[in-house]
Design goal:
The model is unreliable at 448-454 (pLDDT under 50). The chain has 2 domains: 21-80 and 383-446, Urease, subunit C, domain 1, CATH 2.30.40.10; 82-374, Metal-dependent hydrolases (TIM Barrel, Alpha-Beta Barrel). The strands form 2 sheets. Strands 5, 6, 7, 8, 9, 10, 11, 12 and 13 form a 9-stranded parallel sheet that branches. It has a 7-stranded mixed sheet with strand order 3-2-1-4-14-15-16. The chain has helices at residues 58-64, 102-115, 120-136, 150-163, 186-200, 203-206, 222-234, 248-257, 264-269, 288-296, 305-310, 318-323, 342-351, 360-366, 369-374, 412-422, 441-446, and strands at residues 21-30, 36-46, 52-57, 69-80, 82-88, 139-145, 166-170, 172-173, 208-214, 239-244, 278-282, 300-303, 327-330, 392-395, 428-433, 436-440. It has 17 helices and 16 strands. 35% of the residues lie in helices and 22% in strands. Strand 6, helix 4 and strand 7 (166-170) form a beta-alpha-beta unit. The longest helix has 17 residues, at 120-136. With 454 residues, it is α/β, with parallel strands linked by helices. Bound molecules: zinc ion. The site of zinc ion has 6 residues, from strand 5.
Length: 454
Amino acid sequence: MQYSTPAHPLHLGKPENPGYTAYKGHVINPISAQAYEDFVNGALVVDEHGTIVAVGNYEDIQKEHKIDNVRELGTRLITPGFMDLHIHLPQFPQLGKSGQHLLPWLEKYIYPAESRFSDPVHSKAIADWFFKELARNGTTTAVVMTTVHQEATDMAFASAAEIGNRVIMGKVMMTCNAPAQLLESERDAINHSSALCQKWHGYDNDRLLYAFTPRFALTSSESHLKETAKAWKQHPGSYFHTHLSESEEEVKLVAQTFSDHRSYLDVYADNGLIGVNSIFAHAIHLDNADVVKLSKTQSALAHCPSSNFFLKSGVFAYDRLEKAGVKFGLGSDVAAGPQMSLFQVMKDANYIQPQTWLSPAELFYRATLAGAIALNLEHRIGNFKKGKEADFIIIDPTKKSGIARNMMLQPTDEILSSLVFSGDERLIEATFVRGHCIYSVEQKAIEATISSPH
Ligand SMILES: [Zn+2]
């Protein structure tokens, strides 16, 4: 039997020469929910600033461009990096703690874990670990919630700045209905968030961006939500990130607490917290008016199927929201999502739908380009196009036992299917943000294995 395994070792160190570097391998480039470009003998060519110069068949590219450095990747795949639209940094040490619906789960596992972020030593250790793990999982862009602590959030930004991830992040704000040690005044919530935004929003040519982040409606007063909207609007290009309609119990409590508003979404909308650059995680229990409003205002959703399974929160109305033109990508929602890998999230997005089959190509699109569109960053990232920034991953599907060694000889649709349904982070060999390698298996072999600090 003929096997096709990546023939070449990886050599991903700094390019020897200035100029263009060609990553030669099997390039898969999502274009839409249904379509992708496929170059089996392809290349992604990146200039020294991390901008994409060309993508296509290597022979064709060679005729048009002078290539200064070549990275031979054999039959390995080159795809856009994953985009995780909703994840909690401080919850990472609490992965896999199950057995409760949302509100009791927060009380039992999450609030105690978040309280530890008043300790700078702990905060720094977890932040470094978290951003290295994102890179190891092939996630190039993450929309991150931290805790209420300003100093810990500042450290988290510093970690991402150093490690090289692309991040949209914000300090969680909680002004009521939370344990005393996690509560803050409305003034502190806004002032501390604004100070972080001023410091980090736009860092490194917009690699780091700020999101104003009330945890959810229940932990904010109405006046705090109004002040949040003002702060968000005062910082152009910043984001608003929160949870929406996750569990039934939560939705009922919101209806009691904010009885003047038509729906949970309207608690945000009526206070000016909706529209371009807003990201709502979950959005499971919506009515038709909510769906129309999300679409019309170009608000974005983070669909977190693994988390929805884990906390038994319900089923995201995938078809209905897609048909209504609502923008959405995928989120791991660690730690309610038990794994950081977007491979897991992609397969769960298919499994959780009782009737609909989502194709592997569509799931891959949701984990990449759809995320960029949801974040209004598709002009810069999400897929490969001349002029975009080179956020990409190198995948070796043969790395995991149980995936057929000859799979690279199969049609690309079937390679994608094996990836989505059998893949995990072990397949990721390298992760690049803006052309800069932020993780590789080579580097991992040199460094000590990333170990849990706690
Ligand atoms: Zn969440």
